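Example complex used in Figure S2.
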Amino acid sequence: MKKLTISLLLLPLMCALCYNCTDGKVETKIDDSLIENGIHVATGLAYDENFELVRALCTSCHSAKLITQNRATREGWKDMIVWMQKTQKLPDLSTAEPIVLDYLAKHYAPEDIGRRSNLDMESIEWYELSEEE
Amino acid sequence: MKHKRSKNIKSPKKQSPRSLSRRGFISKGTVSTVGFVLGAEMVFAKHFPKGLTPIGLLENDIADDLIGKHKDLIILNDRPVNAEAPPHLLDDNITPRDLFFVRNNGVPPTDINVDTWTLTIEGESAEKTKTYTLKDLKTKFKEHSYQITLECGGNGRSEYNPPAKGNQWSLGAVGCATWTGIRLRDVLEDVGVKDSAVYIGYYGKDTHLSGDADKKTISRGVPISKAMEDESLIAWSMNGEDLPMHNGYPLRLIFGGWPASCSGKWLEKIVIRDKIHDGPKMVGQSYRVPCETVAPGAKVADEDMCIIEEMPVKSLITYPRTGASIKLNQTLSIRGHAWCGSSAVSTTEYSIDFGATWEKCTLTKPANRHAWQHFNAKMKFPKVGYYEVWARATDEAGRSQPMIVPGWNPKGYLNNACHRIAVRVTAS
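Predicted assembly (561 residues):
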């Protein structure tokens, strides 16, 4: 309901993306308030009213990339949380747990990709290859 | 596609250099960001568990440094670092140091002092406890070098359906380097191995992501028979130089043909056990597959999961890069590497008709056991059109790579489905 207000508030952002890559070292400064296509750019997490809660609870040990890489049902996400609680020192999330699970199940749900996907045509960069000597 | 990954995810990094202690649950200052407004704030305040402080809001954008690594590695995670090479960058026979994949489970040690670094051997089945300095190891034992392939047990995980949990590796969590060090066997025998010995386990100096100094991140190992192989090394050098920081500097284990997680990094202790080692990530579902094959998506109890030993036969086309466009009269050369968990690869084949027919490639012999082998082939295409070149290796026991994703397992290990590259053939 308030999503629209939030995104409107965030629209007038300075362009603060600055990549400075040298060999082996990646220096990146991303404006923390940057939201693009519903994604919080600095973390890569889906941006909605529960984003801040998930970010605060889930990115202290590892980056959000471990979340955004994964896909699971609500039950599957619950299993991962239980596993982290049993083995990785994740504390009890108490009343936040259902909110976090709803967020994860909504934004990172599995898709049926079959037994083997097509090569990803969109990601292929075609190039002319000349014969090798 | 399940989800799109940009080719080279840039890691977000804030200016202020911070020590690694940032991982503890410490909190300072106010929790406020531009996005932290309206409904979010209310939900947040109400549900944030007591005793947990929102460190993430302030500091989560600090990536770990990718010291010594190539800028074109695909970064799956920047904290902890998990990065793989795109296949075409693995073209060298010996994988360069900066292109070797990284699978960090925790926080690598900082302030490493090679003068004070020690390795301790102990355990129920060790005759005694003995501690060696790096210098002891380098001077008291005979040095050996081998080309050894290491592959992450989860390489290829991204193709499993239903999706498997963890880092979503695609093809490049593998490499073959020249590792130099001493035989683990020589050191174990110097300490004395009791007849009761069953397994060895390692401990490294990396620390747990939670910041808890007493918690071990990962401690795996191998059966004593594997530990005693000629090619099982305690290594300090990769391709003639010190180990790269992210690959275990200054000391690590090397076990070819088994999940790379057996080859402990930042090595400081080895335990000789009288039972199967039970450190973190030896137990539960980690690095295990169902003892009996299961249907996709099945729930498998921990006690029905078995430890992965040998990795399956596999190959990778490293030239050309996928997406090559050639003319109809042109000959296409391909090359790549093939490896397996034990013995050697006996044949590699390629197909340009989606697996209907297969032609043999030329294949080299391995430099030594557990070294990957190199294949090449030349081919012409019958007509213009879209093609895929598929590669398939077969080991000496007659086991080949499947064309579709192999048997599903809950943690998505051991995907050795054949590698495919896209090729377009246009009119001459």
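Chain A touches chain B through 83 residues (CB under 8 Å). Residues 1-33 of chain A form one domain.
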